[in-house]
TrEMBL record:
Residues 355-589 form the ABC transporter domain. PROSITE patterns: ABC_TM1F, ABC_TRANSPORTER_1, ABC_TRANSPORTER_2. Coiled coil: none annotated. Keywords: ATP-binding, Membrane, Nucleotide-binding, Transmembrane, Transmembrane helix, Transport. This is ABC transporter ATP-binding protein/permease.
Length: 596
C-alpha cells in the first residue's frame, strides 16, 4: 500500500506549543474558564480541610472521657467533616459542569476548522489521501483536545495545588521531615511515570499508525467491493488486511504490556512511601510527639494525595497520547493548500465571458509533461470542443480552467483576468461542470439534484430534471424523488448519474460551462434528447466541450484536436474534414463503426 501524505505526518513540536495552540479555542468563554478555576480552588481547599476535621474528631474523642465529654462538640465536628467532604465533590462537579461547554465548543470549533481546511485542500491532496486513516486522525485529534483541556485544568493543576497545600499544612503542624518524605516519594513517582511514559510513547505512535493503515485498507477494500467480487479476491483482500492487522496486534500488545509494567511500578512506589511515612508517624505517636488525631490526619493526607497522583500517571500517559494526536491534527491544519488565493485576489469580474489559454504548459509530476504549450481562445458565448486520443490531456484543460491545479507556465484568462489572480470562489461560482464520472452523495435523488442550487424550489428542481430527461424515470421509482441513491450513487446507472449531473448544472445556471464527456454514458436516444437540452443551455454561454464521439460536437464553433499534450488541428467540423488530416480520419472511423 502506498503511504498517504496524511499518514506520514511526523512533526514533533514542543508540548507547550501544542497546548498554547489550544488557547484561541477557549477565548470565547473567558468568564466560564475563570469561574471553573474558582471552583477548582474551592474544591481543593475543602478537600485539604477534610483531614483536619477528622484530626479534631479523633483528638477530641481520644482526649475526653465520657464524664467530661460535651457530645455536641464531636457531633458538630462530624457534621463539618461530612459537609467538607460533600462540598469538595460539589465544587468539583460544578467546575466540570461550568467547563463542559468550553470543552465541547472547542471540539466543535476545531472539527469545523479541520473540515473547512480539508475542503480547501487541492485536488492532488484528496487524490493522495486515505479516507479511513484521515477520519481516525480527526477523531483521535478532537478527542485529544477535549482530554487535554479537561485534564490539564482538572487534574495536573489541582494535584499540584493539593501537594503544595498539604506540604504547607504538614510543615506548620509537624516538621520538615514529613514534607521532605512526601516530596521525595512524589518526585520518585513523577520521574518514574514520566520516564516510563516517554518510553511507551513510541509504542502508542506505532499503534496509531498501524491502526490507520489497517483501517484505510479495510475501507479501501470495502469501497471496491464490486472489483473484489469480479476477481474473486476475497481471500487475497483478507490476507492483505490481516498483514496489516498482524502489525497492529504486535503494536497494541507492546502498548498493553508496557502499560502493565508502568502500573505495577507506580503501585510499588505508592506502597513503599505509605509504609515509610506511616512508620515515621508511628514512632512519633509512640514518643508522644504526635496525637492519635495527627496520625489519622497524616494517613488521610497520604491516601488522599496518592489518589490523584495515581491518576496523574494515567493522566500523564493520556496527555502524552493526546498531545501526539492533537499534534497530528494541527499538523493537518498547518499543511497549506497548494492552490491558494493570491494575497490581493479580487472577485472575477465577468464582462463577456471569453476564455483564453496562453501557451499553457503543465505536468502533474515533474518527470512527465502533459500539456506542451496549448493556446486557444473561446470567444464569449461560443462553443469549443476538444477531441483526441485518450490521455492526450483533454480533461486536464478542464481541471486547469477550474483551478484544481495551476499551470506550470503560461496562463489562463477569463475576460483578460488571469485566473490565478482572482478568488477561487468567484471563479468556481461562474463555471458549471458536468464531469466524466459523476459521484453522488448517499442521499435522496432530490437532494442530489438540489445540490446544484440548494435554494432552488421544488418546481425548479423538477424542471431541471425534466430538461435532463430524468423526471419520468424518477417518478417511475416507488419512492420517486425520495429514492436513496446509495453509496457514491451506485444504485443508479452510469447514464442516470450523468443526467443528475446535467440537471444539477442546469440548476446552478452558470455563465461558463465545461462538459467533460457529458453524454458518454447515455444511449443514443437519450443522448439526442440531452444534447438538445445541453445545446439550448450552452447557446448563450461560453462552453468547453470534451468529447470522444465526434458526432456530438460537430456543431461546435471550433474543434481542437489534441495529441500528446498539443493541439495538432483546429477549425470547424467542415474545415477539419476538408483538411483531411487526423480529425477527418477519426471521423471516418467513427462513421464506419456507427454503421457496422
Ligand atoms: N492526478 C494526476 N496525477 C498524475 N497524472 C495524471 C493525473 N490525472 C491525469 N493524469 C495523466 O495525465 C494524462 C492526461 O490525462 P487527461 O485526463 O487530461 O486525458 P484525456 O485526454 O482527458 O483522456 P480521456 O479521453 O481518456 O479522458 C493521462 O496520461 C493521465 O494518466
Amino acid at each position: 500500500m502506498r503511504p498517504s501524505t496524511d499518514n506520514n505526518y511526523q512533526g514533533h513540536k514542543p508540548n507547550w506549543k501544542i497546548i498554547a495552540e489550544l488557547w484561541p479555542y477557549l477565548t470565547e468563554f473567558k468568564g466560564r474558564v475563570v469561574l471553573a478555576v474558582g471552583m477548582l480552588i474551592l474544591a481543593k481547599v475543602t478537600t485539604v480541610s477534610t483531614p483536619i476535621a477528622l484530626k479534631y474528631i479523633v483528638d477530641y474523642l481520644d482526649q475526653h472521657r465520657a464524664a467530661d465529654m460535651l457530645l455536641w462538640v464531636p457531633i458538630m465536628l462530624v457534621i463539618a467533616y461530612g459537609t467538607l467532604r460533600f462540598s469538595s465533590t460539589l465544587f468539583s462537579e460544578l467546575r466540570d459542569a461550568i467547563f463542559a461547554r468550553v470543552a465541547e465548543r472547542a471540539m466543535r470549533r476545531v472539527s469545523l476548522r479541520v473540515f473547512r481546511h480539508l475542503h480547501q485542500r487541492e485536488l492532488a491532496f484528496h487524490l493522495d489521501r486515505k479516507t479511513g486513516g484521515l477520519a481516525r486522525d480527526i477523531e483521535r485529534g478532537t478527542r485529544g483536545i477535549s482530554f487535554l483541556l479537561r485534564f490539564t485544568l482538572f487534574n495536573i493543576i489541582p494535584t499540584l495545588l493539593e501537594i503544595v497545600m498539604v506540604a504547607s499544612i504538614l510543615l506548620v503542624a509537624f516538621n520538615a521531615s514529613y514534607v521532605l518524605a512526601i516530596f521525595i516519594s512524589v518526585l520518585i513517582y513523577v520521574v518514574f511515570s514520566i520516564r516510563v511514559t516517554e518510553w511507551r510513547t513510541g509504542f502508542v505512535r506505532e499503534a496509531n499508525i498501524r491502526d490507520n493503515q489497517s483501517n484505510s485498507k479495510a475501507i479501501d477494500s470495502l469501497l471496491n467491493y464490486e472489483t473484489v467480487k469480479y476477481f474473486n479476491n476475497e481471500r487475497f483482500e483478507a490476507e492483505q488486511y490481516d498483514n496489516d492487522l498482524v502489525l497492529w496486534e504486535k503494536a497494541r500488545l507492546k502498548n498493553r504490556l508496557s502499560m502493565a509494567a508502568l502500573n505495577t511500578g507506580q503501585a510499588f512506589i505508592i506502597g513503599a512511601s505509605l509504609i515509610g511515612i506511616l512508620i515515621m508517624a508511628v514512632n512519633e505517636v509512640a514518643s508522644g510527639a504526635m496525637t492519635l488525631g495527627d496520625f489519622t490526619m497524616v494517613n488521610a493526607y497520604l491516601i488522599q494525595l496518592f489518589i490523584p497522583l495515581n491518576a496523574l500517571g494515567f493522566v500523564y500517559r493520556e496527555i502524552r497520547q493526546s498531545l501526539v494526536n492533537v499534534e497530528r491534527l494541527f499538523g493537518l491544519l498547518e499543511e497549506h493548500p497548494a492552490i491558494e488565493d493570491a494575497p490581493y485576489a479580487q472577485a472575477l469580474h465577468l464582462t463577456q465571458g471569453e476564455i483564453a489559454f496562453h501557451d499553457v504548459h503543465f505536468s502533474y509530476n515533474p518527470d512527465r509533461t502533459i500539456l506542451k504549450g496549448v493556446s486557444f481562445t473561446i470567444p464569449a458565448g461560443h462553443k469549443v470542443a476538444v477531441v483526441g486520443a485518450s490521455g492526450a490531456g483533454k480533461s486536464t484543460l478542464a481541471r486547469l480552467l477550474f483551478r484544481f491545479f495551476d499551470v506550470s507556465s503560461g496562463h489562463i484568462s477569463i475576460d483578460g483576468q488571469d485566473i490565478r489572480q482572482v478568488t477561487q470562489d468567484s471563479l468556481r461560482n461562474l463555471i458549471g461542470v458536468v464531469p466524466q464520472d459523476t459521484v453522488l452523495f448517499n442521499d435522496s435523488i432530490y437532494n442530489n439534484l438540489a445540490y446544484g442550487r440548494p435554494s432552488a424550489s421544488q418546481e425548479e428542481v423538477e424542471h431541471a430534471a425534466r430538461q435532463a430527461n430524468l423526471h419520468d424515470f424518477i417518478i417511475s421509482l416507488p419512492e420517486g424523488y425520495k429514492t436513496k441513491v446509495g453509496e457514491r450513487g451506485l444504485k443508479l446507472s452510469g447514464g442516470e448519474k450523468q443526467r443528475v449531473a446535467i440537471a444539477r448544472v442546469l440548476l446552478k445556471n452558470p455563465p461558463l460551462l465545461i462538459l467533460d464527456e457529458a453524454t458518454s454514458a447515455l444511449d443514443s436516444i437519450s443522448e439526442h434528447i440531452i444534447l438538445d437540452a445541453l445545446n439550448e443551455v450552452s447557446r448563450q454561454r461560453t462552453t468547453l466541450v470534451i468529447a470522444h464521439r465526434l458526432s456530438t460536437v460537430s456543431d461546435a464553433d471550433t474543434i481542437l484536436v489534441m495529441e500528446q499534450g498539443e493541439i495538432i488541428e483546429s477549425g470547424s467540423h467542415n474545415a477539419l474534414l476538408a483538411l483531411n488530416g487526423y480529425y477527418a480520419k477519426l471521423w471516418q472511423q467513427q462513421q464506419h463503426t456507427t454503421k457496422t
